[in-house]
Amino acid sequence: QVQLVESGGELLQTGGSLRLSCAASGRSAFSGYAMGWFRQAPGKEREFVAAISWGGTSTYYADSLKDRFTISRDNAKNAIYLQMNLLKPEDTAVYYCARRAGQYYSGRSYGNQDEYNYWGQGTQVTVSS
């Protein structure tokens, strides 16, 4: 069974920085799989934030976030991270990590949440003005 556990969410002020982590556990839970971050703000649908290929060589971002957010992975630790800088109140949301379906996926489609079949429980990020 694959488990994804996010951590690092907190309450902070506008302009601050935060690093979220997601740890994967379970048999064959991480190696060879692309991973992604999504977020859901109150009253809104869940949206794509960023994704990273299974080898870590390619990254993908929502256009509005690519200048402030950075996704990375540590395959030795079965973990991915999301570095978020210059945070704004509109970044307030529950942030989810997810594992994309299809081991060793080599395409360029990462933004559709239907492409992900394992999800964490989420971590709350609140940015105050």
Chain-wise SSE layout:
Layout: E1 3-7, E2 11-13, E3 18-25, E4 35-40, E5 47-52, E6 59-61, E7 69-74, E8 79-84, E9 93-100, E10 116-119, E11 123-128
Parallel strand pairs: 2-11
Antiparallel strand pairs: 1-3, 3-8, 4-5, 4-9, 5-6, 7-8, 9-10, 9-11
Protein architecture, described:
- The protein is mostly beta strands.
- Helices cover 0% and strands 47% of the residues.
- The chain has strands at residues 3-7, 11-13, 18-25, 35-40, 47-52, 59-61, 69-74, 79-84, 93-100, 116-119, 123-128.
- The relative contact order is 0.31.
List keywords for this structure.
129 residues; mainly beta; seven-stranded mixed sheet; four-stranded antiparallel sheet; 11 strands; 47% strand; globular
